[in-house]
Design a protein that fits this description.
Elements lengths: L2 H18 L11 H14 L6 H19 L13 E6 L3 H15 L3 E6 L4 H11 L6 E4 L4 H7 L7 H5 L11 H7 L1 E2 L2 E2 L2 E5 L2 E6 H6 L8 H11 L22 H16 L21 H14 L12 H4 L5 E5 H10 L6 E4 L6 E4 L4 E4 L9 E4 L5 E4 L9 E6 L5 H15 L1 H10 L15 H10 L3 H15 L13 H16 L4 H18 L3 H11 L34 H19 L14 E11 L2 H7 L2 H21 L3 E6 L2 E6 L2 H17 L4 H4 L7 E5 L1 H5 L9 H6 L28 H4 L52 H4 L11 H6 L7 H23 L19 E2 H8 E3 L13 E4 L4 E9 L4 E3 L6 E3 L1 H13 L5 E4 H4 L11 E10 L7 E9 L16 E4 L6 E2 L1 E9 L2 H7 L1 H21 L3 E5 L4 E6 L2 H17 L4 H4 L6 E7 L10 E7 L4 E9 L1 E4 L6 E4 L1 H12 L5 E4 H17 L2 E10 ...
Parallel strand pairs: 1-2, 1-3, 22-25, 35-38
Antiparallel strand pairs: 3-14, 4-5, 6-14, 7-8, 7-9, 10-11, 12-13, 15-17, 15-22, 16-17, 18-20, 18-21, 19-29, 23-24, 25-27, 26-27, 26-28, 30-32, 30-35, 31-32, 33-34, 33-41, 36-37, 38-40, 39-40
Helix pairs in contact: 1-22, 2-3, 11-12, 11-19, 12-19, 12-20, 19-20, 24-25, 32-38, 36-37, 37-38, 38-41
């Protein structure tokens, strides 16, 4: 609808509303909920995630529904109810959509489902209770959230009456724990169970049989099994594999439950109602010093043998390269339905403990019948029969569906019907067998009769494996010492501290210190959760313990229950309602116009200055040559079409057109989400525009169709998705029965397993919000690439059995493994400034310039001689696996229409370009000084640095690109603006205007157009300071782990000085990395710099340059007084001297903070992290490089012999000329690596026979 008609249309709607209302004798009664519902629906219809035009349409529907419902009374049948509104966890979206479709088909009801992260549901409900309590009819949450829900809101309706009258739900079939604890509170049934998430130990039965091992009964047994099996080759690929792939340190939810499982086996000995973290009788913390310390010790013993990941379907277990895991039931379903290992998987109860907490003494003691009355005699790996206290944890517990107490009876009944439908025995069992988030919670789900096993077998399950699985789950649920999830006020907060403890354990913190931290954090949470007795009663009620006065499980006062006519608020419509509706309509008009960014009289509101205000500049690519080669009539028509499309799209997203410059539009938006929505929709609309035939015949505007290799289609390349991780895994051919890729056909970069099993296997979970110190850093957003998210982390180093002593793994900051490294900055800017070195650092700058020149020359030479990524039919499998950039990877992966490589080309190609190609740049953040208002016209103009940056970013792109700055990217809502969008960090740059500073650039592209990436040229007109994701290496990659030695010690000595040193180290690492053509993977607050290189010679030279430049930098004298930074000189004889006594020459061996570096080369699996848009890597080379770094001596650089040999082959002469020499230092055993590894140490300068080292203080 044209803008000038909007105001008139809204006022006409108000008039129509008034005229249609019955009056006088025709007047009917209306309940207060009807009016409240109208307000609620208006608020929902005008939400931020809905475009302006959609808001107008939605408001019109709401008004129509109000007229039909509120004037016809409330005595409608169920089929006449408005659609149900349900709030559900984002993690359950796929399964919920299927369930809703089935429910609608069976009942005729309509359901609208809103999704938020499961941890945000309680906050959402607390908010809507205060603002619009009728916004939802129902919701479902995990068991740990129930206590917070019923004690902090009055939204939950009791369901006893519904269940009593429902014969289909078969309430007695629900297991006792779920029925009596997770679905009730304070003796009142408040939820309908709709899914369980039990946890069990899963293992490779064939591996355990070959090793003559039984399943581990204790945690110590589990450690022994991991040690025994580690470094074995489980999938016949010739490489050492992890023994364990328990998702410990990298997954919030899994990590919390992992700590709880170990902890509970030592704290809970007399049944679930005695608690595992807090004693419900005394409110004493059970996870105190002794127990938590032992828990962290066990975790640190297990960590070296465990591969890391954070996915619902653990990729290591799915691919057969680990032997043991402890996981949710969905992994069993994934392995059974999507791999060939169905018959190899065994399931067992999680281990227990031989020691337990004596609650009287506070000490850990060996189990006795009195201390552990529910323990059983079991045989451990050492052959002893001992009492083992098991406390099987129910993982997440049961998800339950709830009904809004404030809704009318009709909608309450309909909502209950939805939950009952999901929970009915037959349908719920179907979900248990096939749905990803629904695990068993009924007795019938655990049935192992022949008829039941036949149903499992018909789907593809192995009957023996199913029997083990169901028997284990049943044994856990019926165990007398079963552990429920933590159901008390603030339950999720306590669990979050357990995950933090696990992260600290991963980072190497002492277990006793972790235990002390946890105790302090738990005490603080308890103190902030309200009166102690209220918290205690919430815990008791959550465990099903009768209490005198639990917090109310349902509203004490309901404004409108609709239980009968006496509860209605009757209003004579003929007398009062016209005035009320008029006022309400006025409010609606104002609200809608405001959401549409318009004034009351339909004038478009210009954005106000602010951090979210986003400036957008569009520009037609190659417009000058088009004007010169096409007739003016053709171009004038094309420009007119372009302008119409831009302005129509602009109106949909409430954009403000401030000016045009030639064929460019200068636009402003109220939010970054609106700006990105406009830009992405504009690219789609330009593809669909009706261009002149003459224009489309021009090479710069002709339609361009592209298709992925046939194999890529299996990785999501041909159906509007893009699974880079999957494609990366398929880059390297392999053998074996574990769904590894087969031969790679000429003309196509990779092939896909014929069964397509991985396509459904990688259903990833949502990691915690993160914040990185990289250029992409600071982002607290989460986009959606191929699935929910992609883990932004590297595998933790695994350990190997070895007789030789090995150094500990590098102490990686646990926060950095999740992309949450803090920004490098001293805590006290003033103090840091005082300690800054003098401006004149002549020697340091000379060494830096020398290193940069060397790195550039070596990288240029290596690149010039590169013969990588060649598609060679003479090579087995058809491809020469080598290092290529992400950009080249994509160019090989997609094929242009008409390509001769027909064997590898998908015939169903899509058009990615047609007509004028428009590039778009945007930047967020406008100050008052950047805004001018024309006093005469009232027009607002935005300029200054924000507009200049938006122009510079846009000008750097190719036609069809959508580019933005970090300031825009960080403010995008992940579940709205970035849903279905691939975000790429394009690096850090400087523009031609030095006053604009450094700019981090991101590219956004919708998945259906992702093939454009194969066509786009590199950014232009910018000076690159940090390599972007398109230039990151994939395939065979050289990985370097650099660590600042003793950083924790330095920080304890003088935090400010250590922060200054850390800042300098970070800056030099990045600067030299750019000169070496390397890619920065991670840079953490713990002193880790993780980098990837195209060539081994680049990595070797970068490491050498970094160590040498760090030695010659001008450091603070006080810093140099510390033993970790003191200057050490080497006095050597002058070999060329021929007369008299041989003089000595002195050179610096160590000076300033020590750096040690480990380097290795190998094949990687690459993916783009959704939180940062940066490249991440997985593969055994990551472990090897980390282990080499761990082995390296302080201040030294070590690498594998393969790295050194390839570096010499690539540019050995220049290495020698630069004084970079290597010395074989022997064969070493590295944890997680089969056999010994030959290592080389980089030696600076010449080697002399006689040397003397001295320390300078």
């Amino acid at each position: 609808m044209p803008r000038h008609q909007l105001g008139a249309a809204l006022w006409l709607a108000v008039l129509t509303l008034l005229l249609t209302l019955p009056t006088g004798a025709q007047a009917r009664t209306v309940t207060s909920s009807c009016v409240a519902g109208l307000v609620r629906d208006i608020l929902i219809a005008t939400g931020d995630n809905i475009s302006a035009d959609d808001k107008y349409t939605a408001v019109a529907k709401v008004v129509n529904a109000f007229v039909s419902s509120c004037t016809d009374g409330f005595d409608k049948s169920s089929s006449g109810l408005r659609p149900l509104r349900i709030l559900a966890p984002l993690q359950a979206e796929n399964d919920m959509e299927r369930i809703v479709a089935d429910f609608e088909s069976r009942t005729g009801y309509r359901v609208i489902t809103e999704y938020v992260d499961h941890l945000d549901i309680i906050g959402e409900l607390q908010f809507i209770e205060q603002t619009s309590p009728l916004a939802y009819d129902g919701w479902f949450v995990d068991g740990a959230s129930v206590v917070d829900l019923v004690t902090t809101t009055t939204l939950v309706a009791p369901l006893n009456a519904f269940i009593t009258q429902d014969s289909k739900i078969q309430w007695s079939d629900v297991t006792e724990y779920v029925r009596e604890i997770t679905s009730t509170y304070g003796g009142v049934t408040i939820g309908v169970p709709i899914g369980g998430k039990p946890v069990s130990l899963m293992y490779r039965r064939d591996v355990f049989t070959a090793a003559d091992l039984s399943t581990p009964n204790t945690w110590e047994d589990l450690v022994y099994a991991a040690q025994t099996l580690n470094s074995s080759d489980f999938n016949a690929d010739g490489e050492a594999d992890y023994a364990l792939c328990w998702q410990l340190s990298d997954c919030n939810w899994d990590g919390q439950i992992a700590v709880s499982q170990i902890l509970a086996s030592m704290t809970q000995t007399t049944g679930p109602r005695t608690g595992f973290l807090w004693d419900p009788a005394t409110m004493e913390l059970l996870g105190g010093a002794a127990v938590m310390t032992r828990t962290m010790e066990l975790i640190q013993e297990l960590l070296p043998y465990s591969a890391t990941s954070c996915e619902i379907l653990n990729p290591h277990f799915m691919s057969g390269d680990c032997a043991i895991t402890i996981a949710f039931e969905s992994l069993f379903k994934g392995v059974s339905l999507h791999t060939s290992m169905q018959s190899l998987i065994g399931t067992a109860m999680v281990p227990g403990s031989t020691r337990a907490l004596n609650r009287q003494t506070g000490r850990l003691e060996e189990c006795t019948p009195a201390l552990c009355p529910l323990a059983a005699l079991e045989r451990t790996y050492n052959g002893s029969m001992v009492l083992v206290n098991r406390a099987p944890h129910f993982g997440i517990g049961s998800f339950s569906g709830f009904v809004n107490a404030y809704q009318d009876e009709g909608h309450q009944q309909a909502t209950y019907s939805l939950w009952s439908f999901i929970s009915e025995p037959i349908y719920s069992k179907e979900l248990v067998m096939t749905a990803g988030v629904v695990g068993p919670y009924r007795k019938s789900h655990l049935d192992t009769s022949a008829q039941s096993l036949a149903a499992w077998g018909a789907i593809g399950y192995n009957k023996r494996a199913v029997t083990d699985f169901l028997t284990t789950i049943k044994g856990s649920l019926e165990h007398p010492n079963f552990v429920p999830d933590l159901r008390m006020l603030g339950g999720h907060r306590y669990m979050a501290t357990l995950y933090s403890a696990l992260q600290n354990a991963t980072a190497g913190m002492a277990p006793a210190q972790i235990a002390a931290n946890v105790a302090a954090e738990h005490a603080a949470i308890l103190a902030s959760s309200g009166p102690r007795d209220v918290v205690q009663r919430s815990l008791q009620a959550g465990l099903g313990i009768p209490v005198a006065s639990p917090p109310p499980p349902h509203p004490t006062q309901q404004p409108d229950t609709h239980a009968g006519g006496s509860d209605r608020l009757a209003i004579n419509l003929g007398v009062v309602i016209p005035l009320a509706v008029l006022l309400l309509a006025l409010v609606i008009v104002v609200v809608v116009m405001r959401y549409r960014r318009r004034s009351l009289f339909d004038g478009l509101l210009a954005p106000s200055p602010g951090e979210g205000t986003t400036l957008v500049v569009t520009d037609i690519m190659n417009s000058t040559p088009l004007w010169e080669t096409l007739g003016p009539d053709v171009m004038e028509c094309a420009i007119a079409t372009h302008n119409t499309v831009v302005r129509q799209t602009l109106a949909k997203w409430s954009g403000y057109e401030q000016a045009t410059e030639g064929d460019s539009f200068l636009l402003a938006f109220h939010t970054p989400s609106d700006a990105l929505g406009f830009a992405l929709q504009l690219q789609r609309s330009l593809l669909e525009a009706a261009w002149e035939p003459e224009l489309l015949q021009h090479p710069l505007c002709a339609p361009l169709a592209m298709g992925p290799c046939a194999a890529l289609q299996g990785a999501g390349g041909g159906d509007g998705r893009f699974a880079l991780l999957l494609a990366s895994r398929l880059l390297t051919p392999g053998d074996g029965p574990f769904n590894r890729p087969s031969a790679i056909a000429p003309g196509c970069l990779f092939n896909f397993a014929s069964d397509g099993s991985w396509d459904n296997a990688l259903a990833l979970f949502v990691p915690p919000d993160s914040q990185s110190t990289l250029c992409a850093a600071g982002s607290a957003v989460q986009s959606h690439l191929m699935v929910r998210t992609t883990p932004d982390r590297m595998p933790h180093a695994v350990a190997a059995r070895s007789k030789s002593a090995t150094a500990a793994a590098p102490s990686l900051d646990a926060a950095s493994l999740h992309g949450r490294s803090r920004v490098y900055a001293s805590p006290s800017a003033k103090k840091a400034a005082k300690m800054a070195e003098p401006a004149a650092d002549t020697e340091g700058m000379r060494q830096l310039d020398k290193a940069r020149e060397l790195l550039q020359s070596l990288h240029s030479a290596a690149s010039a001689s590169e013969n990588a990524a060649s598609l060679d039919s003479s090579v087995p499998g058809g491809v020469k696996v080598a290092t290529i950039s992400m950009a080249k990877f994509l160019r090989l992966a997609w094929t242009l229409e008409g390509s001769p490589a027909d064997t590898g080309v998908v015939k169903s190609q899509v058009t990615v370009f047609k007509g004028l190609r428009v590039r778009i740049g945007m930047h967020s953040g406008v100050q008052n000084s950047d805004v001018e208002r024309n006093a005469t016209s009232g027009r607002v103009y935005f300029g200054g640095a924000p507009l200049a940056i938006a122009k510079a970013v846009g000008d750097a792109g190719a036609g069809g690109m959508v580019l933005m700055t970090k300031q825009t990217f960080e403010r995008l809502h992940p579940d709205r603006a970035l849903k279905g969008v691939l975000a790429l960090a394009m690096g850090q740059h400087t523009t031609k205007d030095d006053t604009l500073g450094h700019v981090c650039v991101y590219q956004a592209i919708e998945r259906p157009l992702v093939a454009r990436l194969a066509v786009f040229q590199p950014l232009r007109g910018l000076s690159t300071m940090e390599t972007g994701v398109m230039d990151a290496p994939v395939g065979t990659v050289t990985i370097a782990f650099a660590n600042m030695v003793g950083l924790a010690t330095l920080q304890a000595w003088d935090r400010d000085r250590s922060e200054v040193a850390l800042d300098a180290y970070a800056a030099l690492s990045k600067q030299l990395l750019h000169n070496a053509g390397g890619y920065l993977v991670d840079l953490t607050s713990s002193g880790l710099c993780l980098a990837a290189f195209h060539h081994p010679v680049d990595a070797v030279a970068w490491g050498a340059g970094l160590i040498e430049v760090m030695k010659h930098r001008q450091w603070d004298e006080e810093l140099l007084s510390h033993e970790l930074c003191e200057e050490v000189r080497l006095h050597e004889p002058v070999c060329e001297f021929t007369g008299g006594s041989t003089p000595l020459q002195s050179r610096v061996l160590f000076r300033g903070p020590r750096i040690k570096i480990g380097i290795d080369v190998g094949k990687v699996q690459a993916d783009v992290a959704s939180l940062t848009g940066r490249m991440t890597y997985q593969g055994k080379v990551m472990n090897r490089a980390a282990r080499i770094s761990s082995k390296a001596s302080s201040g030294m650089q070590w690498c594998s012999a393969e790295v050194w040999e390839q570096a010499r082959e690539q540019n050995g002469v220049n290495l020698l000329a630069a004084g970079i020499r290597g010395t074989q230092i022997g064969s070493f055993s590295l944890k997680g690596v089969i056999g010994n590894v030959e290592l080389v140490e980089r030696k600076p300068g010449h080697h002399h026979k006689s040397t003397t080292a001295t320390t300078t203080r």
